[in-house]
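Researcher: I'd like a structural prediction for the single chain below. Treat it as a standalone chain; there are no partners to consider.
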Amino acid sequence: MKNHQLKALLKVAEEGSIRAAAKALHLSQSALTKALRELETDLGAQLLIRSYRGVEFTPSGKALLTRARLAMSTLDKARDEIRWLQGGAGMRVNAAVTSSVAATALATVLNEFESELPDVSLRFVEGLLPTVLPGLIEGSLDFAIAVAEPEQLPYEIVFEPLAQILSEPVAREGHPLLSVNSWSEMLSARWVLSLAPGSSAQQLVNWLDSQGVNVSQQVVHCDSPFLMVELIRRTDLVGFGPRVFCDDPLSGCGLSCFDTLPAFPAHSLGLLKLRGVPLSPAAEKLANLFRSHISQ
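Model: Treating it as a single chain, here is the predicted structure.
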């Protein structure tokens, strides 16, 4: 496998067609097609299915795509380390952060990081497992601060516990169920949750099932924290999130927790990263700031 062949494969995936990929790479279609065919010959497997509708990837092609993205990301990190040795200008760090951290440590971490490394470019995304796991495995994320059950994570992911997080059901102020004092009284609730495997909401559903409270038929599925919060504020849907998020005067405006319910068991907030792949110096600096402030 050669570098230009992998770049051709990734660009086809990004653009959705050989014609668009060739244009983006400033190549002729024949030159790009030749690179792809040489790659298929080298691997002894068909990677693409070409049709009038565009290009689809075979299972072999999809497997290679994941590893190719990681390989290119690793090379980018090597470039970042060289930039670090030359003063840090041009370095990039990509991290995922969960809402409980956004409402507590994130602003302080950002200010301290930028005061020390003002030339490093930062990108933050939501710390939800459907985003976090593919991003880490494919290399588009350096690390994540998220809630997870370590035993449910894929082998490629390392989980470093940082804190125990208390989460509770949350509803709009004045919600008719806010005064209930047992989980069985929540049978009539309609929920809005992100039920990714290992997520805090999935932990809640599993725990409620063990208590004889089945919510699976009354869930609006939503993977956007912003949409979930707005639905909770403006409807009678009940959500589930970290207590610190609801207690914050900004993020928790218009929201109330179910203080009279028996407590749900705490779950682990931790730092997730790809096994065997060291963080760049700038990413390690950012991760250390999160470690320090979350522990406080």
